[in-house]
Amino acid sequence: MSEQQPGRFERGTDGPKVIMAGVDGSESSLRAAAYAAGLARRQNALLALVYVQPVLAAGAALGAPTVGTTDEIAEDLVAEIRTSAERVKDLWRMRWEFHTFRGDAYTGLVQAAEELTADAVVVGASESAGHRFVGSVAVRLVKAGRWPVTVVP
Description:
Elements: E1 18-22, H1 27-43, E2 46-53, H2 57-61, H3 67-88, E3 96-102, H4 105-115, E4 120-124, H5 131-134, H6 137-144, E5 149-152
Parallel strand pairs: 1-2, 1-4, 2-3, 4-5
């Protein structure tokens, strides 16, 4: 039997406390959020919904508006989530939070999971054909091996 180091975070002892889902407005990410909501409800865990605002340096260099666009996406996502939560509030009693991070999706989700001390991460499967060659965010999260990762189709 090993001793636990003082002050060290221990995962998985009493069930998940924080279930994190990455959302970006895509159909697969919204399915992932719904799946994560069901898990969080059954486990009486906090549902942390995370949107990672991409940093579009190339677009900004060309004069394209970037922050306003991603801020609007975040606002639309949280409005949609609030509407959904309001519809089921009498059936599902659950705690949830919405967080926004900046950066590329993988780095932002890793940062979010670390800061929120996520016990599990739920993401949607990539809808981009290019990820077959480069690797999707979901695959990179699984390979990181830091949390249980569920990929929802």
